[in-house]
TrEMBL record:
Leader peptide range in chain numbering: none
Family annotation (InterPro entries): GHMP_kinase_C_dom, GHMP_kinase_C_sf, GHMP_kinase_N_dom, GHMP_knse_ATP-bd_CS, Mev_gal_kin, Ribosomal_Su5_D2-typ_SF, Ribsml_uS5_D2-typ_fold_subgr
The name this protein goes by in its record: mevalonate kinase
Comp. bias intervals (Low complexity): 135-146
Main location: cytoplasm
GO BP, sorted A to Z: ergosterol biosynthetic process; isopentenyl diphosphate biosynthetic process, mevalonate pathway
Family, per entry: Belongs to the GHMP kinase family. Mevalonate kinase subfamily.
Organism of this sequence: Chaetomium thermophilum (strain DSM 1495 / CBS 144.50 / IMI 039719) (Thermochaetoides thermophila)
Length: 672
């Protein structure tokens, strides 16, 4: 069964499964043993897999044969010599155990051997060796070495990548302390951290996707204020709010960015990106040699402002890069103990949240948490002064999801503010809606992970009770005072609340007809999840965050009776997800896709639940057997990779043929 969970990931892509988003992609996550472990305590894995995968098994045999857990680990190990350096000194002073394994040299690392000096005391490469300013020499007869020599400006380069996400349940409500469920997608951002060979005292941020490129003189930045004892934050601190004095001190350094940009809106985006970066850099970085001449260059395959968490991926990549450069991260490395990986991930996530606060104001942190941890998770932040409550969903099922981009760009910040204003204006109507969304999320979690060891699968009676409780909240909302209800009518909130109530009652009737045993069948679970998704969408519409283009997707899907649609992310445009009914014919889907395309929608193919943040170090081409395998990728190559395909081919965490060599991830397991 291990192999099956490994190969499942490719399923939808390999059999041309209509661009579905697929559930856990075991090939890259090394979770196969873990899945078996938890299955062992309740169900056997055979039962579990057949329950989860049901009728979607056509592509199982075409999985990522290359990507099986042990194989990947072996390959990663071979490239891993740089990751366990004394750059981890600071990280290891935190309560984590020392590196458990020493790297061994594979053909690729042999080519780079001359630049590695071993610290004899601990058998690991020394910091001096890692960041050596010596030219990287090698045999002149070796074609790879020529490429390495050409790429001297890339001295001590590394790359970080983080995945986008879909929110399956609970967006917006999560900002107000309710639960959300989110999963990572295979679209990712890639950040190259490179250093000029002759450091010149500047630091450079390049975001070519948004036409942003700016350098700062490091000595001009407000280090004094940021290092004042009452202001100073350390890499292990949890920062839950921005300091207005520090934000103000950054403003003069972002005021003059992008003088060539005419659009005020675009300039604001550039200024907030620059400000968010500087805030983190001044907190985590230092004015000495470490960062001088460093370039942070980001490219992404995630559409911007489409609800797929693009900003959070940038936050995670930059936080990881800054923590790593300033010696505050250990790993990642293969076989890192789960507890140690968790500490590193929490550290990254805390700082990514700082970046997100700068961009969004008051985010819940769900986006950066998924971009950091990957997989799928249940998230709640009842207290903004504390870390969020995060519960991984270990066996997120293979949902046949269709992901559609309306291509209407929106601003998460504005939409979050809109909901907040609505809540302040109409608390009697809005608060019960938010409660209902939170309850929908909690019920869904039980159905997304019904075989979990520590959760009782929900019986039909309990479920009906919960559905009625949701409906009660909707009734409370509709029984608001006359004045509030009238205003709610004006804002077109009442009809979607009534539609949500109808959906919940339909779900109630369907559950009444189902025995406890049948409730766990794929068909019943799919229908229930679908009805809950539709209900969630109606409530988001009532909150004012849908868009006519999103409603049109619902209309096109509903007309064919083939699934349940909801917006995902902040709404106001962006993307929708449709959970397709089991057994929908290829013909019907083709027909839907043609119509969507005609109306200017974009459909995405992606898998759900892949790895979170990862590091590629050294940044070399990774295809064994290719001529230039082992050659360094330089900044120009990265910048000139064409489109998403070009980026994926050059540095992608996963190419079409399987997992790319070299990427390493901090992986946590269920502990079972
Ligand atoms: N490729 C990119 N390069 C640089 N900046 C980006 C990139 N993608 C996103 N951003 C930043 O993120 C902002 C968009 O974030 P926003 O939260 O509105 O959308 P999202 O993160 O895609 O959606 P959601 O928050 O609903 O998931 C942009 O304005 C920009 O600041
Ligand atoms: C709309 C929202 O709930 C999700 C955006 O992806 C905002 C947030 O959680 O911060």
């Amino acid at each position: 069964m291990t192999t099956q969970s490994v190969t499942n990931g490719q399923h939808g892509l390999s059999n041309g499964c209509y661009g579905f988003l697929n559930g856990f992609d075991g090939s890259a996550n090394g979770y196969n043993g873990l899945t078996n472990g938890r299955n062992g305590c309740n169900h056997n894995s055979e039962t579990n897999n057949s329950t989860l995968n049901g009728g979607h098994s056509a592509g199982l045999s075409k999985g990522f044969a290359n990507g099986t857990g042990p194989h990947v680990l072996r390959m990663a190990n071979g490239l891993g010599f740089k990751s366990i350096g004394s750059r981890e000194r600071r990280a290891l002073s935190s309560p984590v155990s020392p590196p458990a394994d020493l790297p061994f040299i594979q053909p690729v690392s042999a080519k780079l051997k001359p630049i590695i000096k071993t610290d004899l005391a601990n058998g690991q490469p020394s910091r001096a060796a890692e960041d050596s300013t010596e030219p990287k020499t090698s045999s002149p007869t070796d074609s790879t070495s020529t490429l390495i020599a050409d790429s001297v400006p890339m001295e001590s380069a590394f790359m970080v990548s983080a995945p986008g996400k879909v929110i399956v349940f609970g967006e917006h409500a999560v900002v107000h302390g309710k639960a959300a469920i989110a999963a990572s997608v295979s679209l990712r951002s890639y950040l190259l951290v490179s250093k000029r060979s002759k450091p010149d005292g500047t630091i450079t941020l390049k975001f070519p996707d948004i036409n942003f490129d700016h350098s700062w003189n490091i000595d001009d930045l407000p280090w004094d204020l940021f290092s004042r004892p009452d202001k100073k934050k350390h890499y292990h601190d949890v920062v839950t709010e921005l300091d207005p004095e520090l934000v103000a001190a950054i403003e003069p350094h972002t005021a003059d960015v992008s003088p060539h940009i005419k659009s005020e809106k675009e300039r604001k985006i550039h200024q907030s990106s620059a400000g968010a970066f500087l805030y983190m850099f001044l907190m985590l970085g230092d004015p000495d040699w470490t960062f001088r001449g460093t370039h942070f260059t980001l490219r992404s395959t995630i559409p911007i402002g489409a609800g797929l968490g693009s900003s959070a991926t940038i936050a995670v990549c930059l936080a990881t890069a800054l923590l790593r450069r300033s010696d505050a991260l250990a790993g990642p490395r293969p076989n890192m103990p789960s507890n140690e990986a968790r500490i590193q991930l929490e550290r990254i996530n805390s700082w990514a949240y700082v970046y997100e606060m700068f961009i969004h104001g008051n985010p819940s942190g769900v986006d950066n948490t998924v971009a950091t941890q990957g997989k799928a998770l249940h998230f709640r932040r009842p207290d903004y002064k504390k870390r969020p409550e995060v519960e991984p969903i270990w066996s997120f099922p293979k949902l046949p999801l269709l992901l559609v981009n309306t291509k209407v760009e929106k601003s998460t910040k504005n939409l979050v503010s809109k909901v907040k204003e609505r809540k302040e204006e109409l608390p009697e109507v809005v608060e019960p809606i938010l409660d209902a969304i939170g309850m929908i999320t909690d019920i869904s979690q039980k159905f997304l992970e019904p075989t979990s060891c520590n959760k009782q699968p929900m019986g039909s009676q309990g479920l009906r009770r919960e559905l009625l409780a949701i409906n009660d909240h909707l009734m409370v909302s509709l029984k608001a005072s006359e004045a509030q209800l009238q205003r709610a009518e004006e804002l077109e909130m009442v009809e979607p609340i009534a539609e949500a109530s109808k959906n919940i009652l339909d779900a109630y009737i369907n559950v009444s007809k189902t025995s406890d045993c049948d409730l766990l069948s794929e068909e019943s679970r799919c229908r229930l999840l679908g009805e809950l998704m539709s209900t969630n969408h109606c409530l988001l519409k009532a909150l004012g965050v849908s868009h006519e283009r999103l409603e049109r997707v619902r209309e096109l899907v509903d007309k064919r009776g083939i699934g349940w649609t909801k917006l995902t992310g902040a709404g106001g445009g962006g993307c929708s997800i449709t959970l397709l009914k089991p057994g929908v014919s290829r013909e019907t889907l083709n027909d839907l896709e043609t119509e969507l395309e005609k109306e200017g929608y974009q459909r995405f193919e992606s898998t759900l639940g892949g790895d979170g943040v990862g590091v590629l170090d050294p940044v070399i081409l990774g295809k064994p057997g290719e001529n230039d395998h082992g050659a360094h990728i330089d900044l120009n190559q990265f910048l000139s990779a064409k489109g998403n395909e070009g980026i994926e081919r050059l540095v992608g965490v996963r190419g079409k043929e399987g997992e790319r060599m070299g990427w390493k991830f901090w992986r946590i397991d269920s502990g079972i």
